[in-house]
Design goal:
The complex is a heteropentamer, with two copies of chain A (252 residues), two copies of chain B (257 residues) and one copy of chain C (296 residues). With 252 residues, chain A is mainly α. Helices cover 79% and strands 0% of the residues of chain A. Chain B is an alpha/beta fold and 257 residues long. Chain B has two domains: 173 residues, Rossmann fold (3-Layer(aba) Sandwich); 67 residues, no CATH class. In chain B, 37% of the residues lie in helices and 24% in strands. In chain B, β8 and β9 form a beta hairpin. In chain B, 51% of the residues are buried. Chain C is α/β, with parallel strands linked by helices and 296 residues long. Chain C is built from 13 helices and ten strands. In chain C, α5 links the parallel β6 and β7. Classes of the chains: A mainly alpha (252), B alpha/beta (257), C alpha/beta (296). Chains in contact: A-B, A-C, A-D, A-E, B-D, B-E, C-D, D-E. At the A-D interface, α1, α4, α5, α6 and α8 of A face α1, α4, α5, α6 and α8 of D. The structure holds adenosine-5'-triphosphate (2 copies) and magnesium ion (MG) (2 copies). One adenosine-5'-triphosphate (ATP) sits at the interface of chains B and E.
């Protein structure tokens, strides 16, 4: 039933996707006749020009911020999520705290971040981290909660202590969900770049896009969007590859 | 009064779920000496697995007294178990599943490799070491579960229908192998089976459980246990058929009751 | 211009000034570019923000010594308990400086202020934009409550809404005002008659107390830059394009405006603003001109 | 091992959580001494005053927007996600499209929405829907992908057609993950209110908060944040209850 | 040449995974007339479950010819199966699990209720109707799986070790019940078992599979099948022991080969 995907399929569907997206975009541009939606050709030209310019540096810096945030958020969110999923009594106590703070827009905490962390990269990274931390936490917690109890008792009967359970049951058992949350987190992290990179920086793809927007240079803005899309895409592919490697057993 | 290695007194286990209460075990009394092999037989749903899970320390929600070597059951430790549904981790290969217990006990890699390789060899699993459980047949999975328990060299081995998915011959081989191990290490074994021949062949003491909320209805001392040469002989078959009639009689009792 | 070099070369004093990509930041940018700050033995870091919200957060968090923004923000900061002072006008010593206008959509048929009655007009609530809007309407004899004010904080979005006829008119500052005109929108009225809008330089009181000398030096450098800008505007065309959000289509032709020498805003202009803010409920305390400004 | 949580525990841990949050907040306010972080008492007073005022109306309108968006996003995202998870070949073709567009910050599409949908509620709801749609889609897709193949073949062998598989295998099997994604989506939806409700509206808790922010009325802003947190909290509790009712089998 | 209801010719099934290829079945030939009961026995891992999954239409990745009533296997339809791991849906209660197949066939609720209630009654599951699979014992789960297949009244019934978790008496009861149903409906049955007595009791034709890549090594016509009264009688036991010796002989062959 499940056949191994042919080698070329990946690239081909990428190309087709891009063509479809460009086509839809082109149609939109034609229909709206608004400068806010430039035709794809202009944006592509601008993209190529920008690539020769500083766009790569912007991308690199954003990549750094996104990756550091993602790793930080996962490093805190995954163990905490598993811990809460594993201990429903504690979760019942902590959950209200999460549920009360998660929906609060993090922009309002900006002054606090700025006071505590300054206006440099750190406050940006913490802002992004905080936002995706919740996503990773909730996903991991729910996955750990729903993990079949049989695995746990089976490994406990082998003499596993709490630490062993994390390592041999919860972490691998929740890994598919953790990777899902990393996918979500990645998307969110990139989407909030436009928040984090609007202050005290002249670098980053978020800055690039918002700067183009405020100068109403829509072609350049869409060049930035193209770059962002591609960067996200590459990161996603890497996550997919990671999943293939780490969760072999799911795909049997 | 004797000090038993395994001693259960008026054990009662309830499953409670949204209002409904299921009494799985009621007034179970059972004792077994150190180094003995006990076998439990009883109708489906009578509470055998529940009993094993209490002994394994997986279910501490019971009333009554349960002592293993004088102490209440704890998880892990010197008890190993084979769960009815095998309990293999789908994300670990056969090798890693079997190795896990030893790793948790912090054995050296060299030690582990030797022990596991020998055991897999014995159980005919060598060529499957790198596969995941999902890539095995039912019987192969069951053998992995057996390997995982045996490799621990436990003092108490709890087995819940450990050979149910094996063909008759493989089953007999592994029964023999289990006896070999027992001869060597004199561990205490408590085994659940539905196979009366198996019960007679392995069980020095055979516990017959009643249906409904289960309790031990009959305890049979079995002198024939472990005698390979008697398998299929008249004496052996007679023992089997007397057990069978007992079970049947008990059943019809229940029907008329 | 060359200024005196301090006799003893000490470690340069640090100042962090938050700016937005608007025209009012030009003197500071030029002062930095021409090395005037360094000459004053100052280490001025111009921290660039893309939106006022983060800039305000930053000065409140003590991360900045000063910002360039408008008088309404200054009054709000003061009202919120932040101890700041307005130390000079950045733009708007005359009505000509810092242009705002009500712009009507092309083919909307709106030509005069009277035509705006009952129409949707895109603004940004509680900002200088709204103040200017009210001022322009009142000066034209129209009760501001007769128009339908729609708050759209992001200027580019506001512009787009105008051209896609989601609103009938908007209020924007230059250079987008010029850009809107360039794209066929109709200027209904400009704020060149009365001085409604001033950009100002705002400093934390703490900075003013502890680094008085540095702030004075800042203004010396700043004044030099103003001279440069006013004397050779053409030389700074590219600097402006790089630092101020100007749509490319008009960037080449957009003229750098005159910048005022550092000076305090007029008391009357400030009082008008405070009065408006009080009426709007933005101010609860009785803020006075003197509370808000400090002469350097 | 798992004991039924006592009745009062829920309320108690809520109260404790609130006390802890208030305490941390109070400490922060003391330490930072910034007007941007008012002490909790002032904010609470302001909250109570506002409650008597229009705050409830703001909350109601935001609630409406959030719920409509959540339902819309789920109505599209869940079936599509299951469909993609069920058909890996099609997923391989569609995934690039998702991966290319997800990381693009949706704010930049605001002008397009406004042009296409006007300045009313619809454009706001579509913006929120679009953002959470991706989260629901990706989570559901991954869950469907990782669903044990055994269930599928078991039900197919009973004669299930494709539609039956959705109904009896994929939907219930992915339900725990779908509820996780609704939790995430809910949080995200509320967090982007501050984006969606900053233009062309005078109503909504996002407007209330951002308006207070623009007036630098921080006590009122934090009153809004309290309201938002409580609203989110109640919605979360409802989701939890929903899960208890719908996924009984997970908690055996 | 006869037209068989079930006809398999040179069936070959490979499992391919990251380089490694496992040959599960090779040159399997098997045929069974309509309305007959066939039983497959063979060592663990020889490919019995694989064969069943091909017949059930769950695995279409095979070479060779497989025909059921002249057509290649399709999923669902008039074939019902009991999977080795039961395949119960954890999110449905016992009742809903059993009902599902009929619901998919769009039977009326009244029809369904009668059919299911009767069957659950017969299998001793009545009181468990509202439980989830996780709340059942191993044997109870297996009985639910049996109920789920039987309720469909299929023309072909494929059963993969359907009674392995049942105690001897329940097992015999359900075997008898299966025969009853067969008498009534004359459906075709193909059953996998490791229990030789069961094979002899149920199988009109017994297929013995070889280990390794499995194929049918021997086909035994069994006249004793279905005769309840012969159970445990000499004739019956002789048949069992001859089968056992055959298996044992084959095994030692393999060992010397
Ligand atoms: N989680 C549970 N909730 C409610 N009842 C349960 C639960 N687990 C088991 N039971 C019930 O408890 C009784 C004993 O179950 P147990 O699994 O111990 O039986 P068993 O003797 O092992 O049966 P089998 O031979 O079929 O495996 C059964 O009637 C079963 O339905
Ligand atoms: N997904 C898989 N990938 C690789 N090999 C597999 C896979 N499934 C089964 N096998 C192998 O194919 C062979 C046949 O498996 P199958 O499950 O058909 O055996 P079986 O005869 O049913 O055994 P048992 O009596 O133990 O259930 C076994 O050797 C098994 O290891
Ligand atoms: Mg059991
Ligand atoms: Mg099998």
């Amino acid at each position: 039933m499940r056949q191994p995907l042919k080698k070329g399929l990946g690239t081909m569907s990428l190309v087709i996707s891009i063509i479809i997206l460009l086509f839809v975009w082109w149609l939109l541009a034609l229909a709206l006749k608004s400068p806010a939606v430039p035709p794809p050709l202009g944006a592509l030209k601008s993209f190529l020009t920008s690539l020769r310019g500083e766009l790569l540096i912007h991308l690199g810096i954003s990549l750094y911020r996104v990756l550091v945030s993602l790793i930080l958020a996962a490093a805190i969110g995954v163990p905490l999520g598993i811990f809460l999923g594993k201990n429903p009594e504690i979760d019942a106590r902590i959950a209200p705290m999460i549920y009360l703070t998660y929906p609060v827009p993090k922009v309002v905490f900006m002054p606090i971040f700025l006071i505590l962390l300054g206006i440099g990269d750190i406050s940006k990274i913490v802002l992004i981290t905080l936002i995706i931390f919740y996503q990773i936490l909730v996903t991991t917690r729910d996955a750990a909660k729903n993990l079949a109890k049989g695995y746990i008792s089976s490994v406990r009967s082998l003499g596993a202590c709490s630490r062993d359970l994390y390592l041999h049951v919860f972490l691998p058992g929740c890994l598919p969900s953790i990777l899902t949350s990393l996918r979500l987190g990645l998307g969110t992290a990139m989407a909030v770049l436009f928040l984090a990179e609007t202050y005290a920086t002249q670098k980053g793809i978020g800055f690039f896009i918002m700067d183009s927007l405020s100068r109403m240079n829509y072609e350049e803005m869409f060049a930035g969007i193209i770059a962002m899309g591609l960067m996200g895409f590459i990161l996603y592919i890497m996550l997919d590859k990671m999943e293939k490697a780490l969760c072999e057993w799911v795909h049997l | 009064m004797q000090d038993y290695f395994l001693s259960i007194k008026s054990l009662k286990v309830l499953y409670e779920q949204k209002g409904e209460t299921v009494t799985a075990l009621d007034s179970v009394n059972l004792s077994l000496n150190q180094g003995k092999r006990g076998v439990i037989i009883g109708p489906s749903g009578c509470g055998k697995s529940t009993l094993i899970s209490v002994l394994a320390g997986l279910n501490s929600n019971y009333s009554g007294e349960v002592l293993i070597d004088g102490r209440p059951p704890t998880i892990g430790g010197e008890t190993a178990m084979i769960l009815q549904d095998f309990g293999l981790l789908p994300w670990k290969t056969v090798w890693d599943n079997v190795v896990l217990g030893l790793k948790l006990r912090k054995r050296t890699t060299a030690e582990i490799n030797v022990a596991v390789a020998t055991l897999l060899e014995k159980l005919g699993l060598c060529s499957l070491a790198k596969r995941y459980p999902a890539q095995l047949s039912g019987g192969q999975r069951q053998r992995v579960a057996i390997a995982r328990a045996l490799v621990l060299e436990p003092r108490l081995l709890l087995m819940d229908e450990p050979f149910s998915s094996l063909d008759a011959l493989t089953r007999e081989e592994i029964q023999d192998f289990l006896l070999e191990i027992w001869e060597e290490t004199r561990l205490t074994i408590l085994l659940i089976t539905h196979n009366i021949e198996e019960a007679v062949f392995l069980g020095q003491k055979i516990f017959i459980m009643s249906s409904g909320p289960g309790h031990i209805q009959q305890e049979v001392e079995n002198g024939l246990a472990g005698a390979s040469h008697l398998r299929g002989k008249v004496q052996f078959l007679e023992m089997c058929s007397s057990l069978r009639s007992f079970l049947r009689g008990r059943y019809s009792d229940a029907a008329t009751a | 211009g060359q200024t005196k070099v301090t006799a003893v070369k000490t470690a340069p004093e640090k100042l962090k000034i938050g700016i937005l990509p608007l025209e009012d930041a030009m003197p500071a940018v030029v002062a930095e570019k021409n090395g005037y700050f360094a000459q004053e033995n100052l280490d001025v870091e111009l921290v660039r923000f893309q939106s006022a919200v983060e800039q305000e957060s930053a000065i409140q968090s003590g991360q900045l010594d000063g910002i360039v923004n408008d008088l309404i923000v200054a009054a709000l900061l003061k009202e919120s308990g932040q101890n700041i002072k307005v130390t000079s006008i950045a733009l708007g010593s005359t009505p000509e400086e810092g242009k705002f206008a009500i712009v009507a959509a092309p083919k909307s048929g709106i030509n005069t202020l009277a035509d705006l009655k009952g129409k949707k007009i895109g603004i940004a609530n509680n900002t200088i934009i709204e103040y200017v809007t009210d001022g322009l309407l009142e000066d034209g004899g129209i009760d501001p409550s007769l128009v339908d004010k729609v708050s759209v904080p992001k200027i580019p979005v506001r512009m787009e809404m105008l051209f896609s006829h989601q609103v009938d008119a908007i209020v924007v500052p230059d250079p987008l005002l010029t850009f809107a005109e360039f794209k066929g929108a109709k200027i209904v009225v400009r704020d060149t008659a009365r001085n409604l809008s001033q950009s100002v330089v705002i400093f934390n009181q703490k900075t003013l107390n502890e680094k008085k000398g540095a702030v004075e030096a800042f203004y010396r450098a700043y004044a030099n830059a103003v001279d440069d800008l006013n004397n050779h505007p053409v030389d700074y065309q590219q600097v402006m394009i790089d630092n101020v959000n100007i749509p490319e289509q008009i960037a080449k032709d957009y003229q750098i405006q005159r910048y005022p020498k550092p000076q305090l805003p007029a008391e009357e202009d400030v009082n008008n603003i405070l009065k408006w803010m009080t009426k709007k409920g933005l101010l609860k305390t009785d803020l006075k001109y003197q509370d808000l400004v400090e002469k350097i």
